[in-house]
Task: structure prediction
Amino acid sequence: MRKAQRHAVVGTLAAVALVAPACSNNEQPADDTATTTTAEQETSAEQSPSPTRDPNSGVTTVDDAFGPGCPDLPQDDEPGSLNAMSEQPVATAVESNPLLTQLTAAINAVPNLADTLNNSQALTVFAPADSAFEQLGEDQLNQLLANPTELEPLLSYHVVGERFDAEELSEAGSVATLQGSHVSVEGSGEDMTVGGAQVLCGNFPTANATVFVVDQVLQPEEGAAPSGESSAPAESEAPGAEEPGGGEPVEEDGEMPVPTN
Result:
């Protein structure tokens, strides 16, 4: 009887000894899986985009509008008034305003630009008044309207791919435009200027943009490098290198980017 019990105990211990390694082997892949999952989660977190601006940032109301030119806009609910434009996407709003007829002509001269502006979710637009385009002279204006590839980057310098109100612009000091380079902002309120242009009527909303009517057609600073690009000369432009045509830079035509925010 004791021998039988002894054999039973020995058999049980042997079984435990055999099962223990098996359990250990079975548990290891689970640990590896957990480690792999954790690593994947950390990698995914690192690759996820940074938080975008609050969708309500830069959104204003008609009561936020300011500037000496605001009384010159149509009043009440007339087409082109602050109330009417606040309900329309920005290109449609500009088209309805009798003080922005030259800007409307410029936008319509670039294929699909009006649709691009209207379909964008959040923009800041610096809109030159008709008097601003008149300063260019009739010949230059007609030349621009007849040349969309030259006109498009000029117009895109008047558009920011995010929505800013006047206070945010003043705090920023400069903002990146869809043309690629920055435009400076100085002063605040009635004394605000954008790229050296006086704000005639600013900080008013359209359905998808905050708009600032300005008294000049904004011009990128000569020699300014677009955002994210180096202003250093390319290898072929290095001192001592010869270029055809006396080394004059060749301007590349580019399409206006479509904002996604």
